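Notes for week 9. Today we move from apo structures to complexes. The key idea is that a small molecule is not decoration. When we ask for a structure prediction with pyridoxal-5'-phosphate present, the ligand SMILES becomes part of the input, just like the chain. The input block below holds both the sequence and the ligand string. Read it once before you look at the output, and try to guess where the molecule might sit.
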Amino acid sequence: MRMNGDWIALEERHTCGVYRKQPVVIVRGEGVRVWDTEGREYVDCATGHGVALLGHSHPRVVAAIQEQAGRIITCPETLYNDRRAELAAALVSLAPWAERVFLCNSGAEAVEAALKFARLVTRRPGIVAARNGFHGRTMGALSATWRPEYRRPFEPLVPGFTHVPYNSPDALEAAVGSETAAVILEVVQGEGGVYVGDGAYLRRVQELCRARGALLIVDEIQTGLGRTGRMLACEHHGLEPDMVCLAKGIAGGVPMGAVLLGPRVGKLPPAVHGSTFGGNPLACAAALATLGVLREEKLPERAAELGAFFLSRLREVRSPLIREVRGLGLMVGVELRQKARPYLRALLQRGVLALTAGPIVLRFLPPLVISREDLEEVARKLEEALTESPLSEDGDDG
Ligand SMILES: *Cc1c(COP(=O)(O)O)cnc(C)c1O
């Protein structure tokens, strides 16, 4: 029987190397837990960067995928499909302002589509994004992404993008003009460090966009679908953006992205955009099951309640290493006074998978079905990890 080390060597030998990996080989998942080849168990607070909203291999999602795989897997959007029709209606019903939806296969694709639609509809070139924002790694999405380390090797990027400080209304006011097609923002900046957006700021952004004829794109790829305690994080602040990007957990782990479109985008002309796999019946069936479980099990409400508990529990942790604990719902960051990555390793050794968000923030994105007891255990293990001297490790984040 092959052990962890063998699989790690095989994967290291043949994959391209762009990921900084944790030294564990996951072979199975159920609910909030995953297991490695040696039978070690982990509480998963990384969930593929927030993908497993319902936990791993939720029975309703598994059944939907199995059933749909036996019926039909692929069907392009140049033909109609029953599951897709149903899903499109379900997605549009997530927000009162949403009228239509574009379906694709990942977060970056959802952002690319939103950027293209903004230019198409406004006939303007400019995109305003935020410092510390993250929107994906393809050329357009990367142009909206802030971190210089991600951008620099690939310049020149798409022209027309500017970045302003997050939560600063004055900077935005100065940046949005008659050439601005759209402003793109997260309600809580995820990869950038778990920075929570200020409600008054976000409402001001929307007002400015309306006044100056620019569209507002809210990237809810990480915050969406219950993560922050509301089905869409926009609901916390009464936002009615022109487009909302979704992906990550939307289809229970099957790759899928979507862009909700409001009335200022409306119905688009044929052939301006598209995707071979977009709206495929397999992903649509998985997404329908996921949305059903989110709604029936009231998981956004659960995330609000458990998130409040987890935040206050983490704020009780007395460690000189902690600078700040912040978050919204079950999207939680612990900012340290030093590099976070060694503590990721210490958590792993204690059976907890977590993430970083930039160099000094530990990030927890547990499944929304996690129990209070499991969150208590995660908090206790973090306390332990922070009190022992960290293992040294190269690199600053994941
Ligand atoms: C993960 C993420 C993306 C990119 O999604 P991919 O599916 O990895 O392309 C974009 N925006 C936000 C806010 C994200 O968290």
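The first helix runs from residue 4 to 14.
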